[in-house]
């Protein structure tokens, strides 16, 4: 399984949750639950309304890191609002 793509999908969901008004605590909990469902360990999140950072260890022991704002994945401005 490509865990970098998994993390990207999870971050897309988390980003949309924030944009739609979800509380930061709810978004963190959702990220942890989604990562855990795919067997990831050592899940860490840092979220403010303009930034999401997530790291986890996949089942093979590799560390995955991804963050938004500005988005390095598409080299455009993040879709995150300055104040959600």
Descriptive tags:
84 residues, 2 helices, 3 strands
Question: Which geometry do the CA atoms define?
Answer: elongated
Within the largest sheet, what's the order of strands?
1-2-3
Q: State the separation between the terminal residues, measured CA to CA.
A: 33 Å
Low-confidence segments:
70-78, 80-84
Q: How would you summarize this macromolecular structure in one to three sentences?
A:
37% of the residues lie in helices and 24% in strands. The protein is an alpha+beta fold and 84 residues long.
Task: Describe, in plain words, how this protein is organized in 3D.
The protein has helices at residues 3-19, 24-37, and strands at residues 41-48, 51-57, 63-67. It is α+β, with helices and mostly antiparallel strands and 84 residues long. The protein has a 3-stranded antiparallel β-sheet with strand order 1-2-3, with helices on one face. Strand 1 and strand 2 (51-57) form a beta hairpin. Helix 1 (3-19) packs antiparallel against helix 2.
Task: Compile the SSE list and pairings.
Layout: H1 3-19, H2 24-37, E1 41-48, E2 51-57, E3 63-67
Antiparallel strand pairs: 1-2, 2-3
């Amino acid at each position: 399984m490509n865990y970098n793509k998994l993390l990207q999908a999870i971050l897309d969901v988390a980003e949309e949750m924030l944009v739609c008004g979800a509380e930061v605590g709810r978004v963190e909990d959702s990220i942890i639950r989604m990562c855990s469902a795919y067997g990831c360990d050592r899940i860490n999140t840092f979220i403010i309304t303009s930034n999401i950072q997530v790291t986890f260890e996949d089942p093979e022991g590799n560390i995955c890191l991804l963050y938004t704002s500005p988005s390095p994945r598409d080299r455009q401005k993040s879709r995150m609002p300055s104040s959600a």
